[in-house]
Amino acid sequence: MSEFEQMYREVILDHYKNPRGHGTIEGADAEADGQNPLCGDEVSIYVAFGDDGETIDEVKFSGRGCAISQAATSMLTEMVQGKTATEVAVLDKDELLDEIGIQLSPVRLKCALLGLTTLKVALHRAKGTPLPEGLAGFDELELS
Amino acid sequence: MAVTEGTKKLDAHAVRADFPIFDQTIHGKPLAFLDSAASSQKPRQMLDAMNEFYETSYANVHRGVYELAERATAALEGSREKVRVFLNAPDVREIVFVRNATEAINLVAYSWGLANLGPGDVVVVSELEHHSNFVPWQFIAGRVGARLALLPLTDEGELDLSALDGLAREGRIKVVATNQVSNSLGTINPVERLAAWAHEQGAIFVCDAAQSAPHMAIDVQALGADFVAISGHKMCGPSGVGALWGRAELLQAMPPFLTGGHMINSVRVEKTTWGELPHKFEAGTAPMAEAVGLGAAIDYLSAAGLDAIHEHEQKLAAYALGRLAEVPGITLYGPPAERRAGIVSFNIEGIHPHDVAQILDMQGVAIRAGHHCCQPLMHRLGVAATNRASFYLYTVREEVDQLVDGLATVHKVFA
Question: pTM (2 decimals)?
Fold first, then answer.
């Protein structure tokens, strides 16, 4: 495997080019926008809960950014489908990073975790679930 | 010194030998360092000067009565004189050492701005500004109830001077602040004309020269500015030192920016009086070794010749624009080569600059990807980020070729 393939694995490029859960949800139960001012990545997350008001029935994202941020968010939408807000709030970032499966420099780590952080903020606002403990380490991440 | 005497043509390959950083490979590839607009690499001569200062002449400056303190003071003040000559400032007391151009502009915005700006006043900055010449003015204007107005850009990324008349009608313009060279697009701005226009409005003109001073000869008197800011780290000097030049009568009338040690005349419980220029603006222990390094960097650049450096970079920019135009899906930003410094910003269709920069890095090519601290400009261009390759006196054509070859690999990965 070439060094390029290690970084830009087939699955990353596939998610980047054909993002799952791309779009918006009108009247979403939870939503938040996140930006990474370092590179201008932008992700907006929309969540609709099921009848229990807890379980994620549908999750969509829109935005623009590098392959890593967009692919990671695309993978995230598949991961959290059917989970409850509480489960997602405590979802370990390593679980997503394992899924992404590539070595990331600290700068690119912010790209990879933008979607997850934004989702946790959306859930925090809607359901009062705890904010990611790592948010303190995301000084450059702007959440609006 | 690696220049051919007489004609003052720059031999970038020879210059390169002065820069230890190039004695290595990156990811097994030769280093193509195309990010000098963010910060430049350092010649051995500058590093040696700092080292020698620490090894032979280091002590705190001013007031010391012993030999070492005198040597250190002479070295610091000698560097101040070098900065004066470099900028062709009339008076060495007008040279204030600061951390960088950002601090220089903050000094002016806080010290001059808080004393002279009020409700209804207008501060004009350009759409092309680095945040360092945008945010301080926005912040101070907000504090005093003044308004920030934007000098817009043309589609070629140049200041739209046809908007000046309209701006003049908008209110009482007190400050006009622009850069001389855009760090993002490389645009060379008509600062002499803007300075004259500012003075017609009764405003001061503040010039951010952080991106021009390293690459072209600057004459603050010919330029007609009131304040000029430079950063040492972008011009072969160390990080942590820069300089502000300001007209003496303005500096004299201004209150201090930072207060504390060294900047005083006398301190009593009832009242403290300020020191003479430039010391009034240099609170605390100066960046002494850094200033010595800046002086050595100025010697180095002057020996190479600022005109020769400028010519070398404009040729590289023209070459790069030509070669990059061959790259499929590329959008190039900014004016034609003859009206820009050695900076080329571009985007590759469908591939985010971060991904471009990452794949280039794996091939030993260092470029910058992002908003280059110019978010208002990125907004104007309608993009979140660009790729930027920037050149200096040590940049060679082979590095541009390595960039173009690298972009072919970027396309392959994303094919």
Answer: 0.89
pLDDT digits (tens, 9 = 90+) for A8-30: 888 899 999 999 999 999 999 99
Domain assignment present for residue A59? The answer is yes
Contact across the interface for B355 and A66, Cβ inside 8 Å: yes
**Domain range enclosing A116:** 3-130
Q: In Å, how far are A137, B111, B273 from B256, measured between CA atoms?
A: 36, 6, 10
Q: What's the mean pLDDT in B47-65?
A: 93
Amino acid identity, residue B41?
Answer: Q
The enclosing H or E element of B350 equals none
Do the domain assignments include residue A136?
no
Asked: is B49-302 a CATH 3.40.640.10 domain? The reply is yes
Closest residue by Cα to residue A121 from A140, A142, A94, A143: A143
Between A4, A42, A68, which is nearest B384 by CB? Answer: A42
Q: Is A131 on the interface with B (CB under 8 A)?
A: no
Does residue A139 lie within any of the structural domains? no
A143 belongs to a structural domain:
no
Q: What are the tokens at B415? A: 């094919």
For residue A98, give Cα distances in angstroms to A68, A83, A132, B141, B164. 13, 18, 18, 48, 55
Task: Please tell me the class of the B3-42+306-413 domain.
Answer: alpha beta
Mean pLDDT of chain A: 88
Residue given tokens 């390595």 in the structure block = B402
- Which among A4, A37, A65 has CB closest to B359? A4
Decide if the complex's ipTM is over 0.90: no
Query: What CATH code is carried by the domain that includes residue A94?
Result: 3.90.1010.10
